[in-house]
Amino acid sequence: MDTFGSLLTGLSVAIAPTNLLFALIGVLLGTAVGVLPGIGPALTVALLLPVTYKLDPAGSLIMFAGIYYGGMYGGSTTAILINTPGESASMATALEGNKMAKAGRGGPALATSAIGSFVAGTIATLGLTFLAPTLVEIAVQFGPEDYFALMCVAFVTVSATFGDSPVRGLTSLFIGLALGLVGIDKLTGQARLGFGVPELLDGVEVTTLAVGLFAIGEALFIASRRHAAPEQVEPVRGSLWMSLDDWRRSWKPWLRGTFLGFPIGALPAGGAEIPTFLSYAVERRLTKHPEEFGKGAIEGVAGPEAANNASAAGTLVPLLTLGLPTSATAAMMLAGFQQYGLNPGPLLFADHPQLVWGLIASLYIANVMLLVLNLPLVGLWVRLLAIPQPWLYAGILVFATMGTIAAKPSVAELGMLTVFGVLGYLMRRFDYPVAPVVVGLILGPVAEAQLRRALSISLGDPMVLVESPISATLLVVALLALIAPFVLKGLDRFKANED
Fold first, then answer.
1. Per-residue confidence (pLDDT) for residue 1, from 0 to 100
2. Closest CA to 152 of 439, 496, 424, 355
3. So where are the chain's domains?
4. How many other C-beta atoms lie within 10 A of the C-beta of residue 466?
5. Rounded Cα gap, residues 305 and 115, in angstroms
6. For residues 308 and 277, is the Cβ–Cβ distance under 8 A?
7. Which residues pair with 168 in a beta bridge?
């Protein structure tokens, strides 16, 4: 009953006119950026961080969540119409969706995507509603050594999840950890890595790093590829609605995709790409129309899109209950919490129940808004693809710079923004994942504080880190997650040499 009571309290927060407006802005922005190739929800949240730092925390976080959900919806539009996923999680959708569009069935493909996203998002949000309090009860029992071990799991899994190479992921993470050391040591009062610059004594602002890496870096990277051939938009022909046969073939994939996406998304190393491709493989195996796969099978759109949106709700489980981001957008949302002095975790549910439950309740409302907006406005979303990229990214550069200066007017801050922008471009250019840098900056100081606390309680005995069953288990998991990619890569090379 407590969960229902908390949800009703959250609903009273979510239906406040201001918060409904924030949710509407979020889903509209999210869908728009999902449609535009190269601009994802993580970049959008990063851009809005410096602009929203003086706004109401509940409204801003509801807007960020709406952007996240909307981005998952919008990414399927470009995947289906121009074979270019707006989000990496929409790659599986492109396999069959674009074939359907070329066969004159773009309308049913977009419809099954939107309805499947609504079904999956609603069921997964129910899962978040009832699973989060249980996880909070477990997390309250954690000591400082357990939290440190949990941070180690987060560091390793985030580094392994983002990007193709674990070494590059770990390199990105260590850049973030190094940036987290900048500023005054809270225990000793000594300046660290300040290099004589007074502005650095306050540490590196998460918003400046996020905007530089995501917005400036992405704009520079797109500009460097300006001669790439433009994609051809496939027009939506025929009916926008699904036939009775389309409904019959879609409802089971929606449910299967949901039950694949939510639990995998909730894992520390889950993400959205794994369940979407897994769902595609399952639908291909279970289909009664195998001859259509590769030519435009509606099951190949319905299942992955449901898995995609269910995983988005899944990533909010570890974010809200443990403070662990498992996607780039979740990392940006974590930065959003921190700019208001809020730390996601078990204490968030105790100290700010109205805010956290208002955020969860708003997800139900955002889902309904997205379903109502997506199908009627499909023509508008398609027209967004006609915006010239130079205009788009020039606007992003101006918006990013103005937002950063408004949040913290300083020449040093503008210089850091430029440096982080160039770093973001170089990381994309050489295929280094960007998200682990932000995760390292946010979670690094938290891990350091928990480690020091654990060692202080044990009078400096490092064995305290493995004496607790929880911390010992988590450290073993972190070690296995660290060595597994290298072992698998070695086995692949061994098999290749044998062949």
1. 46
2. 439
3. 2-143+206-418
4. 14
5. 9
6. no
7. none
